[in-house]
C-alpha cells in the first residue's frame, strides 16, 4: 500500500486533463530517461564524426590548416554567443514553468526561438558567402567535413526550434501541469545538447591548428 | 553565495567570457600549438558547465552524469590527442 502511494506520486503517471496538478518533487531527475538516452546516442554519433575528422586531419595537416584560414571565425563566435544566450532563455523558461507563470514562459521561449532563427540567418549568410567564393563540399576534404558537420548540426537546430515553438504555443493551455514541465525539460535537454555540440564544433573547425 | 553561483545568468556570463577569451587567444598571436590546446580545454570547461548547470546532469541519475562527463572527456581527448599527433607528424 505504501509502495503504491509512492508510485502514484510519480510525475510520469499523472494524466493531463488541462488542470493544474500537484507540484513536482524538487529532488526528481530533470526530463525523462528516453530523452537522456536519445541525446547520449546522438552525442556518440558526433563523437565518431570528430574522431574521423581528426584522423583525416592527420593525413592532410597543411591542407586543413590553410583551409581553416578561409573560414571567418566572427560567424562562429556570433553563433556561439547566440546559442549560449538561447540556452539561458530555455533554462529561464523552465524556471518560469515551474513557477506556473505563463507569460514569462512564452516570453523566454519566444526569445529562445528568435535566437535559433538568428543562428539560422548567420549560418545561411556564411554558407552563401562560402559558395559565392567558390567553396563547396567538393573543394577538399576539410570543406566536405565543414559542410557535413555544420549542416547536420544545423538540422538539429531546426528540430530544436520546432520543439521550442510547439512548447510556446502549448504554454497558454498547459503551463501548470507536470506533463508540460517535463516536456519542456526534455526540449531543454535537446537544446542544450545542440549548444554543447557547437561549443566543440567552433574550435574544432575554426580555430584548432589554424595558421 | 551558492545560489548566486548556480544562477543561469552567472553561468551565461562565465560561458560568454570563456568564449571571448578563446577568440582573443587565437587572434592574439600567441604560440599556435599551445593556444590550440588551451582553447579545446576551455571548450571542455564550457561544455561541462552547460551539462551540469543547464542540463542539470548533477540532478539526474548518477549514470547520466557519468556518461555525459565521459563523453565530454572523450571529445576533448580526441581533439587534443589528434592535434598533438599532427604536430609530431608535421
Can you walk me through this structure?
The complex is a heterodimer of chains A (211) and B (90). With 211 residues, chain A is an all-alpha fold. Chain A has a single domain (30-55, 73-207), classed as Cytochrome c oxidase, subunit III, four-helix bundle (Four Helix Bundle (Hemerythrin (Met), subunit A)). Chain A is built from 7 helices and no strands. In chain A, helix 4 (73-98) runs antiparallel to helix 5 and helix 6 runs antiparallel to helix 7 (178-207). The longest helix of chain A is centred in the C-terminal third of the chain and has 34 residues, at 141-174. Chain A is elongated. In chain B, 84% of the residues lie in helices and 0% in strands. Chain B has helices at residues 2-6, 8-27, 32-54, 62-89. In chain B, helix 2 (8-27) packs antiparallel against helix 3 (32-54). With 90 residues, chain B is mostly helical. Classes of the chains: A mainly alpha (211), B mainly alpha (90). The interface between A and B is large, with 48 and 43 residues.
Provide the fold topology.
The complex is a heterodimer of chains A (211) and B (90).
Chain A: H1 2-8, H2 33-59, H3 61-68, H4 73-98, H5 102-132, H6 141-174, H7 178-207
Helix pairs in contact in A: 2-6, 2-7, 4-5, 4-7, 5-6, 6-7
Chain B: H1 2-6, H2 8-27, H3 32-54, H4 62-89
Helix pairs in contact in B: 2-3, 3-4
Can you give me a brief rundown of this structure?
With 211 residues, chain A is mainly α. Chain A has 7 helices and no strands.
